[in-house]
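Need tokens for this chain, all 315 residues.
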Amino acid sequence: MEFFTISLLNGISYGLLLFMLSAGLTLIFSMMGVLNFAHASFYMLGAYFAYSVTELVGFWPALLLAPLGVGALGALFERYCLRRVHAFGHVPELLITFGLSFIVLEMVQLVWGTSSVDYRVPAALSGPLFTLFGTQFPLYRGFMMAVAIVMLLALWLMLTRTRIGLVIQAALTHPEMVEALGHNVPRIFMGVFGGGAALAGLAGVIGGNAFVTEPGMAATVGSVIFVVVVVGGMGSLAGAFIASLLIGTIQTFAVGIDTSLVSVLSGLGWQIGPGAPGYALWKLKVSQVAPVLPYVFLVLILIFRPKGLMGTREE
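Here are the structure tokens for all 315 residues:
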């Protein structure tokens, strides 16, 4: 029961961090149709910006200033780079964001170095939230979960209950009508891209000190973000939320299971010897294959439900 409860809580907190990351990418894709390959780079920038601001004025100002800085960079990139290739289709958009990810990586290494930085959890959030079965659950993980839930509610309310949310959604499907009503559609798209980048920056502020802030952090989570978006359904915010929780929970449970399929079958009375076909795979522990599980999930979704859990197939 201790393993199940603590693993479930850790899985939910990790899944909510994945949602904070994937929400911005989902927002950009659903509103603009742009698959942003540099999204994880904005996450990395958020962590590094927060580290620098924290060194100067503390963590709480960094929680606000770092996402705003990342969002401003995202908006400038859309205005002066992405917008110029938008008319040429999705492939140039994908390639320019792919190039941006390498530029950001090199700039981070030039400014902050190639090793990890000492970005720590603030002292006010460093203790345990509660103790369960003798195991302490960190207060900071509870803070991560609370921020992710607040962000989800804020996004949902903005997109469904406010005028600006309705204008943003209408600008994607009926841009001419929105322009006829007096709205600046290019400026709306710039704001959407900047907002998506700011959400990734917020995830970096929250996740950078919970894990490790180093130049490889974007590559570590970048592929998992796309798994979440595809599994949830391209452009579906609710699907991204469900997929994030599923993948985070499954991966966390798998990391904690230190047994192999050979051991399980032996306990059931089925003996598999070294000479059996594929024995090397049978004896792998579940914890060893945990990093592969999200991609196995991705393949299964693409085979049996290509539109994702909550996506809709475009005609």
